[in-house]
Amino acid sequence: MPAVCLCWDSLWGVIRRDWISDQSRMWTMLPHYRTRTDAGYARPCLTALFFTLTAFSGASAQDVLSPPDSVESAKAEQLNVIGIRQPQTTSADTAHLLDHALGYSTYSAGGVSALPVLNGMADDRVATLVDGMRIDAACPNHMNPAMSYVDPDSVSRAVAIAGITPVSLGGDSIGGTVEIERKDPLFAKTGNILVTGHVRGDYRSNGGGSGASGSLTVANDMFSLRYTASYSHASDYQAGGSGKQVRSTEYLSFNHAVTLGVKKANHLLALTFGQQDIPYEGFPNQYMDMTNNRSTFVNGKYKGDFDWGTLDVRGSWQRVTHVMDMLSDKGGHSATTGMPMNTDARTATYAIKATIPLGLKHTLKLGSSFDHNGLNDWWPPLQGSMMMGPGTYHNINNGHRDRLGHFAEWDAQWLPRFSTQLGVRNDLVMMNTGKVAPYSWTGMMAMADAMAAERFNQASRGRTDVNFDVTATGRWKPLDSLSIEGGYARKTRSPNLYERYAWGMGSMATRMIGWFGDGNGYVGNLNLSPEVANTASVTVEWHDPNPTQRWDLKIQPFYTYTHNYINVRRLSSFSNGLSMLGFVNHNAQSYGINASGSVRLWDRTAYGRGELVGNINWVRGVDLVTHSGLYHQMPANGLIGLHETYENWTGRVEVTLVKSKDTVDWLRNEPRTPGYALLGLGGSYRWRYFTLNAELANVLNQRYYLPLGGLSLGDYDATGVLGPLPGMGRSFNMNLTAAF
């Protein structure tokens, strides 16, 4: 059941905004979520999958959840109070803000840590940017992905672009890019003082979920100070149909941030200091849970307009201390049970982008970026255990992964109806790690890990990859009602630290490595080559030529051939039928099609506005060496919904359809799951500064299993039965927001 409830006249109106040139009329169409059209050249973004928080448009990605600066300032001058209207999502996970974007899905992890998938490419294959900075997971199970550090209530813009991603949006990825931007500072009109903010409360019946968030801004025309905070909690949820609790699905999360903004003329400087604390988070498809995760970060952003163009400079620093063990429902978390695992990571980054107009029809973007990721991963001994002691297991010892990138991107408007974009990028990826150690160098139980550690320490571990990306796209608009984009991209991704440096060969040690939720054990490979993906795609958009835009249709077929795709080979089998797998390079291909459409059924003053909407996504991936399906490929899925808006009321009825998952990765023992259909109801009401949003998810309490959920290992510890992860049963969700 989709977890997002937006004002439905804005939902599809935003998607169609590419053909709405009259901005005042667009503001009328979007009374609840104002949308800004950034000035500048309309660049083509092939297979751009913009969720309703953004728009599919040639223009730069939009700030959708807050009005443009001029409107914001005008409201502050008139009322001296202005609240930023929030996305009406009932999920505590920012990754779900992008639900319904074409080709986008998530695979289950913790309650606030879902991992993104774009056209069948998941996790590290997707470049996830938070405030323009790349954040990599600091955990052998990827329990703390980039979007888990951002509360959805603080997001102003969320964008997903699959396949052919402009080189200016990052390298070292082959699946696409997800951009998350926090809100910019607010400022008052000259001579005024602005005091504004909002508070919000959330409730979820299934699992007893609750949450609260809010912000407070004090500003004049030059300085702005904002404080934001959020809290989110849930217990284990109940599965559909059976009503049984799904173990290891509880979580507790806190976020705090302070943003200082300075604006003068055409220059903006913003500094954000923040901390996140997750005391615990269960992971139902992992052997381990997260028993503490604390992140402290500083983000800086400068934007300036000059005679020669615009300059955007970003910088960040982050430290993460991360602890894994087993929560009580897995029988762990004491001095003599479980398995303590610690990670200490530091990230330092910068990104510089200059946009230079070359006349009226051409624009040049030049940029440079650097990302340093340092990682220590060690597992303290467990008291009284012969297997996990007497020493400390050093998994990654002073490892680092540094990436230096430069790009050039040329946008050209050759004709009023034809434009192109050409981009080239180079990324230098440098990796190394120190010597490692097993729990013990002696004894039969430690022999496999001791021998592997000796080989690893004697090997040359430093690696440098020189990667090149190229994108070429064109956009043609033969009719006012028809737009066609097409292009090609060569994208490259280097292995992550664990794919190269996870050295353990023991049964227990290897099962602690792996972010796939499949229960298998993984072994790294020092000799992995970077993945190189060649993608071709076309996007066709057709809509009603009438200015009222009563219907629209978008179709996006794509094909990707990947050299050196990082997959696995089987090394041995475990007693429970799962396997020890080693990372290897294979060639692979994936192809598919995404489509969406809408049609307005009625639009009358007495009845409001009603629309029928729908989308469908299908992808198929194949390893060309093993001829197995690629892991974590979502089966064909879609949505059919009826949305209505009447004055301050909105409502929706939606059916989510998912085909049975029959094509699986047999090497990883990926489970097959049956198809299902989920009915959802929802609506919202807005009165003055209050917005109430409510939904009933999985109305019929349908029993189903998550196609990308992996194995329910939390339940396996209690039942001894391996099976796919069950989905959530019926749940009443609501939130209330008050702006001031």
Can you give a write-up of this model?
- The protein is mainly beta.
- Helix content is 7%, strand content 49%.
- It has helices at residues 8-15, 23-29, 69-79, 447-458, 497-501, 507-511, 713-719; strands at residues 48-49, 104-107, 115-118, 121-122, 126-130, 133-134, 155-162, 176-182, 194-204, 209-219, 223-234, 251-264, 267-281, 289-306, 309-325, 341-357, 362-379, 393-415, 418-432, 463-479, 482-493, 521-523, 531-543, 551-573, 579-604, 608-623, 637-646, 649-658, 676-687, 690-697, 731-739.
- A hairpin with a 2-residue loop joins strand 27 and strand 28 (649-658).
Using only CA atoms, what is the Rg? 25 Å
Strand content: over 45%
Sheet/helix structural class: mainly beta
Specify the biggest β-sheet.
22 strands, antiparallel, barrel
Gross morphology is: globular
The overall average pLDDT, rounded, is: 86
Output the number of helix runs: 7
The total of beta strands comes to 31
N→C terminal distance: 32 Å
The level of helicity is under 10%
Poorly predicted spans: 1-88
